[in-house]
Design a protein that fits this description.
single chain, 265 residues, mainly alpha, 72% helix, globular
Amino acid sequence: MKRKVVYASPFRQFLLVILALFLRELKTRFGKVRFGVFWTIAEPMVHIVVLLFIFVFIRNRMMPQVPFELFLITGLIPFFLFRHIATGLMTSMDANKALFAYTPVKPIDTYITRTILEVVIYSVIFGIIILGFGFWGGLDVSVLNPLETLALFFLIVLMGFSLGVCASILYNIFPVTKIVVSIIMLPLYFLSAIMYPLWIIPSPYIEYLKWNPILHMIELFRQNYFAHYPKTDGINIYYPLGVTLVALFIGLYFYRVRRLALAAR
């Protein structure tokens, strides 16, 4: 009697590949590093503690409308999420190149898997820190517009994904891209209004800062999170959304052109 062979549908095969890659990435991220989970949570916490210590004497003068602890969290976590997605996708080919010998595994699968992993990790970190400040710190951690805030969170994810795909293509052609992106991320950290409120910056300088799409996303995220967050003229969703869609189109177009080269790298 012949044994009947059951083939998985393409979508189910895709989900199985993503799940297998996710478990592999999770093990790589936490399984080989002692206290890996602790250090993942500790990174944003160290930043928060250090910045709270630096601004302890002026934080109430800077922004009496918003608890400074929550102000930092709503800037740091979205930026770290964006940075880890963009830089993680750039080098995802190197970490998984041995798997491309298997036909079902494609480079785009590693992009999606790493993005999902970062979203899960930083969503958990954000929830832990927010609940910690709410429960032990006695702060009001309620969200003004939950749906809008969630949408902005995922738009930040999409921006990181789009720029990460572009960086991966460039890294495949020019390995020096890894160094360049790492250098760019440092000034971007200081130019995204993470540790200071945007409204304390003189107007002429704000116009230059507005060229940074991440700044728009973080400001919009805070405006929808806090009830009394001051709004800055010129901050809107259209500019970062446009940058994201253009980067996504460029990244996916060149991915399609170079997907075989990416897998063979």
